[in-house]
Amino acid sequence: MKKELLPSFLLSIICLILFSGIYPLIIWGIACVTPNNGEGEVINVNGKKYYANIGQKFTDDKYFYSRPSAVAYNAAGSGGSNKGPYNEEYQEDVKKRIDTFMVHNPGIAKSEIPSDLVTASGSGLDPDISIQGAKVQVKRIAATRHIAEDKLYSLIDNQTERPFLSMFGPSKINVLKLNVMLENLK
After folding, report:
1. What is the arithmetic mean of pLDDT over 17-29?
2. CA-CA distance, 122 to 116, in Å (whole number)?
3. Residue ranges covered by each domain of the chain
4. Residue 33 CB-density burial (10 A; 0-12 exposed, 13-18 middle, 19+ buried)
5. Dist CA 93 CA 89 (whole Å)
6. HSE-up of residue 149 (Cα within 13 Å, Cβ side)
7. What is the spatial distance between Cα 156 and Cα 174, in angstroms, rounded to a whole number?
8. Each residue of 130-174: pLDDT tens digit?
């Protein structure tokens, strides 16, 4: 018994030191040399601080809507809904989101609504939407703000983030940055 107990105890101590001490220090050191010292991308609007890498809730018709969040945009409790696509409660949630979207965006067919506007991400904090997710909202925002649709399409094009090396991942738009630029649009 002594032969098995001592090695397991030593391995536990080594893992504790390595994964609770050394590894976090290495990651912290790397974060310290990144832009904003690992704080993420901070945007100040009217004296208030927002993080562009964390999803924000936008529900007013004059703004582009964010992707739904399974955690109510609470960064302290990141996580998905853990409901599968055939779960009845999940399907009901998605149906409600589609119905709500269609009420606020009349004239849009259900088939035109991208999935990212009615389904939460795995983290519940995705700050980005697809290009189609932004474009499908243009008519509502143009009517609410009395802005020409071309200006909004141009704004979407300017705020589009292209894939890394033009091949890794989809093009996307950060909703917070897009809405900040929308506020500055005259």
Report:
1. 93
2. 11
3. 1-39, 47-184
4. exposed
5. 6
6. 8
7. 10
8. 999 999 999 999 999 999 999 999 999 999 988 877 778 889 999
